[in-house]
Please model this.
Amino acid sequence: MVGFLLLASFLLGGVAYRHEWFPITLVNQLHILFSASPADPSLRPFERADAFGRLRTYPSKVEIACPIQTPRTAVLLILGQSNSANYGGQRFESEYGDKVVNFFNGRCYLASSPLLGTSGFSGESFTVAGNKLIRNRQYERVILVPGGAGAPIASYRQGGEAHTIMQEAIASAGIRYAITHIIFHQGESDYAIQTSEREYTHSLLSLVESIRTMKVEALFYLSVATKCGLPWEPKNPIALAQTKSVNARLGIVPGVNTDALILDVDRYDGCHFGYSGQQKFAEALREVLIQ
Model:
């Protein structure tokens, strides 16, 4: 009996780590809060993260005047879980100065990992995507607006914490910018907790309809994203819901299918994207955003 309980605790802990469930989310947040250098008064504990666990400041961030949006500016609202946050294996920075920008809480910064406005403190893929969009001359400037939370899809429904975070990000960005693209990369935790296809679809459509009530008409790029460790099956209820939820009336279009694109070798822990996975995702994202 004791052996069984130890094994169950070990497995549950592993699942919690992969999917950022409590208490892992608390441990990660405490790491962020207390890893600051005491020599820098701007980085004292409890000043690095907000009430939602999002980074609000980080060493070496360079604040700049927020650029004016033009027709050649992409403003990307980024929603989802850890692979849309700062859990990537490699950190990146803007290769084009103020042409790739991180917007958070009414302020602008030169884009660099980790991005302000989301959880985690490692790398991410969106600064890379911004660099690629500039390099290929698809846009003259890219504004990154993180607005997601590592949570099951139910949290993105009205009244949920992730929904509140999303609303706050949209309202804050809306003072200066009109969002041009919405990137949604979420679903790994729902695969783990066995959310049904119907439940996932219902919550997802509720999220999109809520965004539309906020007068955001940008296309909603829906990733197929359910893979986060083993055991895993590609034909699962969440992936089916994501595939079937493409909806022209609501402006939901296919995003990147990272289940198929990002192989095990591209994930440093079987779940989160390593350098090769980040590069693959960023390039695929660039391609879908310009179609």
Remarks:
- Confidence is low (pLDDT under 50) at residues 2-46.
- Residues 60-289 form a domain with the Rossmann fold fold (CATH 3.40.50.1110).
